[in-house]
Amino acid sequence: MELREPYDYVDEGTITTPAGFKAGGMHAGFRKEPGRLDMALVEADDVCSAAGVFTTNIFCAAPVTLCREHLHGQGHGLARAIVVNSGIANAATGEVGMRNAQRSAQVVSEAVGCSEQDVLVASTGIIGQHLNIEPFERCASQMHASLSSDPQGGHDFARAIMTTDTVPKECAVSYVSKAPGMEGCEIKVGGCCKGAGMIMPNMATMIGVITTDAALEGPAAHAALRAAVNVSFNKLTVDSDTSTNDSVFMLASGAAMKDLPTIRQGSEAFFELSAAVEQVCVNLARRMAQDGEGATRLVTVNVSGAANDEQADLAARAIANSPLVKTAIAGHDANWGRIAAAAGRSGATFKQEDVDIDIMGMPVLRGGLPVEFDEDEALRRFEQPEVVIDVGLGAGPASTTMWTCDFTHDYISINGDYRS
Asked: What is the DSSP string of 287-323?
C-alpha cells in the first residue's frame, strides 16, 4: 500500500488538534518568575491507550520510575492525563522524590476524577532539589477547570514545559485513511516537546507528548512511538549529554474512530498512523536542534554508503557531536577536514579513498581527495538557517540522518549560569 507522505500539516497544530483532548498551562509557583507558565496538563476525554519511551540514564528521575510503573513496566497501558512541571526535575531525590511524584499523580487524579494509576507525570529543571507539592495541591483543580480543546490550550501546555528553550515546539498533521475498513476516515496526530540543551540519545533532555484521535491497542501505540523516536529524537544531539528525565508519551483517544475497529500492530492502518507519528516526531526533533542552546544554525548530517545501519549511525553521530565540526559551522568555515576526521574516528568501517563529502551542496571531497571550491560561495551558503552535510562512505547500502546545531559562545554562557 502506497502511503501519502508527508501528510498535511495543520495550521496552529498542537496536542489539542486531535479530537478527544484538552490541555492548558499556568503559573503554579514552581518557578520564581511571576507569570511564567510552569505547570502543564493534558487530559483525554476518557481513559485511553497510552505509551511511553523513557531515558536510559541510570540516574533516572522519580517521575520516570513512576511512569514506568503506571505503564506496567512494558511501556504501554491506559492513561487519562499527563501532568508536567518545569523548574525542578525531581531527580536524585531518593524516596522523598518518589513520594512527591506519587503525590502529584494523586492530586491530579482527584482533580480530573480518575484513578491515580491513570495519571502520568513528568518534571524538568534543576536536578537534586526536592519538588514542592504545594503548587499541585493549590492549583490542580483550577488547572483542570481551565483546560481547553482549542489550539490555545495546547499552546499554553507547550510553553509551560519549557526550560532553556527560546520557543515552544509543536505541530500536528492530518490524513485521510486508505486502509481497508477505514477508507475516508480522517485521523490527526499532534505533538509538542521541550528541549534545547543536554541533548543526546537516548533520548534527549526532553519532555514530549504525542496525541492522536486514532483508536490503538496499547502494544501498537508503543510500537509506533518507539519506531518514531528511533528515527527522530534518537537521531538528535546538541551537546552529547543525556538527561535524567527524558520522557515521550503518546495518548490515543480513539475519538475519530467511534464505530471502527481498533488499529492493530502490523495492519495497513497501523503503518499509515506510524508514518504520521514519525512525521510529527521528526518535525519536533528538528525544532529542538534548531533551538539548541546558543545555536544559530540547524545542522543536518546525512551519511550514506555505510556497511549497515549501525555503521551509518556511528559515522553520523561522530560528525554531529564533534565540537570542531560544530564550531567550524558557527564560524562559517567549510572545514571538510574536521568532518572527515570525525568520520574516521567514529568506528565505522570504510576506506578513505571511497569517501565523498558535500557541504551545503558543494563538493569538497571526492574519492578521499579535496576538491577546489569557491570560499566566497561557501560563506554565502552558510547564511542559510540550515547547514546540510552529506557524507558518502562508499562501503555499503545503509544510510541515516542526524540533526544537531552549531556551538557558539552563548552555549557556555547559558550553561555556566544555569543555576545562578
From this structure: HHHHT-TT-S-EEEEEEEEESSHHHHHHHHHHHHH-H
Catalytically active residues, by annotation: 205
pTM above 0.85, yes or no: yes
**What does each of the 420 residues of the chain score in pLDDT, given as a tens digit?**
334 458 999 999 999 999 999 999 999 999 989 889 999 999 999 999 999 999 887 888 999 999 999 999 999 999 999 999 999 999 999 999 999 999 999 999 999 999 999 999 999 988 899 999 999 999 999 999 999 999 999 999 999 999 889 999 999 999 999 999 999 999 999 999 997 654 444 444 589 999 999 999 999 999 999 999 999 998 988 755 556 788 999 999 999 999 999 999 999 999 999 999 999 999 999 999 888 777 899 999 999 999 999 999 999 999 999 999 999 999 999 999 999 999 999 999 999 999 999 999 999 999 999 999 999 999 999 999 999 999 999 999 999 999 999 988 876 665 555 444
By three-state DSSP, how is residue 180 classified?
coil
β strands within 89-149, DSSP E: 119-126
Structural domains counted in the chain? 2
Within-domain flag for 199: yes
Strand order through the sheet with 398-405: 369-370, 362-366, 356-359, 386-392, 298-306, 398-405
Tell me the backbone φ, ψ of residue 175, rounded to 5 degrees.
-155, 155
Let me know whether 41 and 181 are in one domain: yes
Tell whether 243 is covered by a domain. yes
Give the whole-angstrom CA distance, residue 362 versus residue 126: 43
- What 3-state DSSP class applies to 135? helix
382: containing domain:
298-416
Q: What is the rounded CA–CA span in Å between residue 353 and residue 50?
A: 49
Q: In the chain, how long is the greatest CA-to-CA distance?
A: 67
User: Which of 260, 290, 320 represents a domain boundary (last residue)?
Assistant: 290
Residues 286 and 303 in one domain: no
- Tell me the torsion sign for CA atoms 411, 412, 418, 420: negative
